[in-house]
Amino acid sequence: MTVTVSASGLTLRYGGTRALDDVSLRLGAGVTGLLGPNGAGKTTLLRVLATAVPADQGSFTVLGHDPGSAAGRQDLRRTLGYLPQNPGFHPDFSAFEFVDYVAILKELTDRTARHREVRRVLDAVDLSDVRGRRMKRLSGGMRQRVALAAALVGDPGFLVLDEPTVGLDPEQRVRFRELIAQAGEGRTVLLSTHQTEDVAMLCHRVVVLAGGRVRFEGTPAELTARAAGRVWSSAERAPGARAGWRTGTGTFRNVGDPPEGADLLEPTLEDGYLLTLGDGEREAVA
Ligand SMILES: Nc1ncnc2c1ncn2[C@@H]1O[C@H](COP(=O)(O)OP(=O)(O)OP(=O)(O)O)[C@@H](O)[C@H]1O
Predict the structure, then answer these.
(1) At what angle do helices 111-124 and 95-105 cross, to 10 degrees?
(2) Are residues 132 and 94 in contact, defined by beta-carbon separation less than 8 angstroms?
(3) How far is CA 12 from CA 55, 57, 174, in A?
(4) Is 89 helix (H, G, I), strand (E, B) or coil?
(5) Which range is least confidently modeled, 49-58, 169-178, 268-277?
(6) How many whole angstroms separate alpha carbon 153 and alpha carbon 77?
(7) pLDDT in the model for residue 149
């Protein structure tokens, strides 16, 4: 893997809370999923990498740009696309006006070239037909696509997406997944999500963060493999299971340390993820 984003020892405290605790990671082209329970530090990590907030300690580079200097920070921001958790739309802006406004902030000063770029990114997310519609009249899924279009303005080399599929219905989520996959072709994408299926379907790498620390970094297959031989079916709730629930067929699906001779099941990425977390952290999984 050619490393495009590299972070070392990132630490950030809010009062007594260590939102990030010595986080080091390396990303390459393609989509990397960032999983973690509520409060794990995902948004904080994305905000640090997007230069929205400085870390107390540690360093990172994005496509060779080091935000430690003002010039490096500016170069990094020019190669960055960021879709924050709450994009904060102006309800009376049209989709076009919103993306155009972001394009102005991204220093696209030539009006004709900028408008061409705004049309290009709205077309890329299939919103050309509604580009004149006000934000308040768009569905939640369309609004998220506008936010993705805004993040794609200027063809950034590093795209940071903070839970972009929250609140979308399954059809919209699949559509959004296609768009993220396209965006990840030849570009580094870091996608924070609570959806383990999105990671399994979309990502070539996955990072698990909990309590501000990296608990796992590797491929989705490697995370799934952590649960090999540790998922089993039983007629009653298994006492040794770390997590277990009755399935639609009436049997229990258990994750943990199976008893001798247990009826083992094929593990999923979610099983590997659950086993990577500590007991209290599993309860915080949304
Ligand atoms: N501005 C802030 N002031 C004080 N504490 C904060 C602030 N932002 C985050 N925190 C705390 O830092 C920790 C990490 O929060 P963060 O929002 O990064 O987690 P997250 O993994 O994105 O969670 P979620 O999945 O719920 O969005 C939490 O304990 C949170 O309460």
Answers:
(1) 120
(2) yes
(3) 5, 7, 34
(4) coil
(5) 169-178
(6) 12
(7) 94
49 CA to middle of ligand 1, Å?
Answer: 15
In a domain, 112, yes or no: yes
**Residue 224 or 173, more confident:** 224
Does one domain contain both 13 and 74? yes
Residues 129 and 8 in one domain: no
Domain membership of residue 84 (yes or no) is no
146 close to 118: Cβ distance less than 8 angstroms: no
pLDDT(279) > 80: no
Q: Is 255 helix (H, G, I), strand (E, B) or coil?
A: strand
Q: What is the pLDDT of residues 25-74, one digit of tens each?
A: 999 999 999 999 999 999 999 999 999 999 999 999 999 999 999 999 99
In eight-state DSSP terms, residue 259 is P
User: Residue written as tokens 């063809």?
Assistant: 155
pLDDT band for position 281 (50/70/90)? low
pTM listed for this prediction: 0.93
Ligand 1 geometric centre to CA of 75 (Å): 27
Which residue owns the Cα nearest ligand 1 atom 3? 14
Its ipTM equals 0.96
For residue 41, how far is its CA from the centre of ligand 1 (angstroms)?
Answer: 6
Residue recorded with tokens 């107390």: 56
In terms of residues, how long is the chain? 286
Domain that includes residue 65, residue range: 1-79+156-219
Q: Which tokens belong to 180?
A: 């993220």
- Dihedral sign of CA atoms 46, 162, 271, 242 in order: positive
